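Page 42, continued from yesterday. The earlier attempt failed because a stray header line got pasted into the input along with the sequence. Redoing it now with the clean sequence only.
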Amino acid sequence: MNEHYLDLVRQVLDRQVVDLNHYNCGKVDDIEIDLSGEPKIIAILIGNGFASERLPEFARWVSLKLFGRRKVKIPWIDVSVITEDIKVAKAAKDYGLDERTGSIYRIIAALPEAWKK
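This time it went through. Structure tokens are written below.
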């Protein structure tokens, strides 16, 4: 394998995204690719809005009601490192990916031992 080879399915999709402070931002739900001419990766797509699109209709409805419709595009140029995780160049809040806000966070945070490692 040479240095210019990237297997998008194995190395990018469904991988954890971490910001410059090593804060978890979610997982890569989809990839935006420009196919006009030579294929080029435009952005990684994160959020329940993207993930829910692949579900059957009733499961999609439940998922959107429980976890929201958030859709975040992170430009491919902001992806700095690809290892076990996908590291991005900015803080999670700069992308709108601060997961510890909102109604679901308040419910999960109320559970014993939530967010503890």
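Notes: Strands lie at 16-18, 24-27, 30-34, 40-46, 72-75, 79-82, 86-88.
Reminder to self: strip header lines before submitting.
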